[in-house]
Amino acid sequence: MAKPRIAFFDFACCEGCQLQVINLEAELLDVLDHVDIVTFREAMSEKSDDYDIAFIEGSITRASDIPRLEKIRENATVLIALGACATIAGVNALKNRRTPQENLRIVYGDDGDKFETFPVRPIDQVVEVDYYLHGCPIDKNEFLEMVKALLMGTAPKQWTSAVCVECKLRENECVYDLGRLCMGPISRGGCDAICPAYGNSCEACRGILPDANIPSMVEVLKAHGASEAEIERRFTNFTAIDKLVQEMEQPQ
Amino acid sequence: MPASKISKDDLKRHLSEKLTDYTLVGPVKSRLAYKFDVISNVDRLEIEYTTTVLPPKKQFMPTVEPLIRFQGDGTAQLPLIPTDRPVALVALHSCDLIATDLIDTIFATAPGDPYYKTRRENAVILGVRCMEPCDTHAFCNAMGTLDQKGGADIFLTPLDHHFLVEPLSKKGETFLAGAALSHSGDEDAQAVGRIANERDKQFRSQEKVDLKALSDAMTTSRDHEIWDELAGECLACGTCNITCPTCYCFDMCDKMELSLVDGERRRSWDSCQLREFAEVAGGENFRGTRADRQRHRFFRKGKYLFDRYDLTGCVGCGRCVRQCVADIDPLEVYQRLLERRSARV
Questions:
Q1: How close, in Å, is residue A161 to chain B by CA atoms?
Q2: Cβ neighbours of residue A21 under 8 Å, at least 6 residues apart?
């Protein structure tokens, strides 16, 4: 049987998630026993439009991104969103707090009209996504598990539990007990609660869980002294607001 | 056996000597929270402590553990659970001792779970009496577990300068061999009584939960409005289950190596408050709403285990309510359910 052909692509992002893949130094050669990597700008010069599995990093921020992404979707049998920018819009979502015109003016000044931009969106608002690898950045071992599952034809694990689960399993003291706010109770896990484990708040980089109890979370944040503006920031640091609304509208 | 006692220093010395033959596990402090951990220096041990994040159950049922290793050639092996050194599990509160009894009933009674049993039989447990409420959330007194000795092999009662020592099993006696025990007189027993009286008044609720009445109340509470109210508050984060000493549900999955044919089957702690818990192939979910899941949680604590084993599924340790950011309090839930029942009678 021919090896599956894998390609990596990026849109608006820092390419840090692809770097995580390259960081799998000890395992990469074993991975190559099973797959051929045919496009991977960060690691090689060769390119090909003939691939089975496409990993997409980055979010969609301008009209010209759309046909490019649609073409990749057409070529690929399996399409995977790689990292927060692709899965939930990531930190790029911050720009949605302003109008595109304002953003162009702030970034490019008088030359703003030479560039195109529109409100940022995760890739599943443009094409169908088969699987998600969440996180900012992704966890390289989770990437490896995803590849193994695809090779074996089993369903890759898609996390639906909150960060609190892994946080408690590590016996971290609660970030709220440290006097800070934390999105862990309603944020998608899979990260082994790495931020709370080092005393930091969860910022929901893997997204808000689709059936999250948002009104209660807002009450918890308020009870711990968060202002309305602070609460909105917590919810939208990593998540484009329309993606959040779309998820909230799913049946509970 | 006549009552005996040991000075605090002598107990520490004895535990330190036991490090030669036993792996010592007990509460240690890490930043703000306590947790059970392996102890190589007895100075780290905190015998008088507020309750840990996770229950000591993790000692017998690790949060993640391999059940079987398998290879592509069709061979498989059970993992080796080392038993060359016995484990001394030190300073369990009464709530955790009773919880250990409960988990023993389920996992160590025939046919039993071999992984759990191997670790459990390899352990000697030292319980310690709580001389004050461990924190404001505890309600062990209401659940009837306060001062209980449950699965302990040795039960210690701390006084000012010494511990009263009660060996409760052969294992316990073996562990105590060579300890500098001395006779404890009536005045010690009287001191314990006095302190306990003062202690009891400090708990947040003075009323005992009638376990039989609670189970009966639940029978008619399937449609109680409280489940929707709890669903309004619950964040479905799973904390209550993960920190509970009487929860034992687990998930299983295969962790494959890159050969794609060798691997191991693992089990890991699970939580019935998570959306996926009751989801089956095809996407059907038997407890798809938070209300369903909260009801299941409390029915399991107050009814299912009680009906089947005559044991309370909630030992009042307070871990869940202490760590619930939405402040869901089991004692309040039990009281609400019992109120409606008494209103009806």
A1: 6
A2: A8, A55, A140, A143
